[in-house]
Specification:
This protein is an alpha+beta fold. Helices cover about 20% and strands about 30% of the residues. A 6-stranded mixed sheet has the order 1-5-6-7-10-11. β5 and β6 form a beta hairpin. The longest helix is centred in the last third of the chain and has 18 residues.
């Protein structure tokens, strides 16, 4: 069985403040001290995970477009020789705007279409309903409301398995119905913790984030995941880590 091939698909580095707005950040031009007090420096990077049978996308980024109008996520895939039409699974940890912005596009007639037409979309039904109700500023409902009646969607329960090789559970912590995923192919195991495990340094400290729905729960989960990941030799995918997109403990 083919081992897991993991590729980060970065949309860039940003600062985000209390206003929940992602502002591009160039370390050669900008200083973090010049951004509003409390701003966080983060990468935004969905992940492509390839197995012998599947091309899987974990989260869909901000949905930004390149200068030529192409979806940046599509451009990132093409740059590594992957046709966006070959993506057959889109797995969503939650639906905050920096994780769900690339789910769909709207044409000049106002018609929405999914950006990965050959993929099954896997998302928690509870997270979807919560996101629609909660809305701005964390959720941009027009990014994901198309999922409500799409035949490409498979709604996830609180805990279970996707196609027998991706185990998932509702972790909570960052938001009430956030989910985490453990992918296994042969002896390879990779863990995607979305915004519960967004950066390597947070696995190594008892860090409680003020931006989490329940920061203590997230912190305790990270301690649990770090111990299991070390014991079972997981590769961690860090969605918001500027320097370490993939690492093992």
């Amino acid at each position: 069985m083919m081992s897991l091939q993991i590729t980060p698909l970065s949309e860039g580095v940003f600062t985000i403040g209390h206003d929940k707005i992602f502002v591009p950040f160039d370390e050669t031009k900008h200083l973090l001290e010049e951004r509003p007090t409390g701003s966080l420096l983060v990468e935004v990077q969905p992940f492509l995970v390839q197995t012998h049978q599947h091309h899987i996308l974990f989260d869909t980024g901000l949905g930004f477009r390149q200068a030529d109008g192409e979806l940046q996520l599509h451009g990132n895939l093409r740059s590594i020789g992957v046709d966006p039409l070959s993506i057959d699974m889109v797995v969503l940890s939650h639906l905050h705007k920096d994780h769900a912005g690339g789910i769909c596009s709207t044409n000049e007639l106002g018609i929405k279409s999914l950006n990965f037409p050959n993929a099954r979309y896997y998302v928690s039904r509870k997270e979807f309903d919560f996101g629609l109700e909660k809305g701005y500023p964390s959720y941009t409902t027009e990014d994901f409301d198309i999922l409500a009646h799409s035949e490409q969607v498979e709604w996830l329960d609180d805990k279970g398995s996707i196609q027998g090789f991706i185990q998932y559970h509702t972790s909570g912590g960052h938001c009430p119905y956030h989910q985490c995923f453990l992918i296994q192919s042969g002896e390879d195991k990779a863990f995607f913790g979305g915004d519960v495990v967004p950066q390597l340094k947070q696995l190594k400290t008892r860090y409680i984030a003020k931006y989490d729905f329940d920061g203590r729960v997230s912190m305790e989960l990270r301690q649990k995941y770090a111990a299991l990941g070390h014991e079972e030799k997981w590769k961690f995918m860090f969605y918001h880590d500027v320097k370490h997109p993939i690492a093992a403990l």
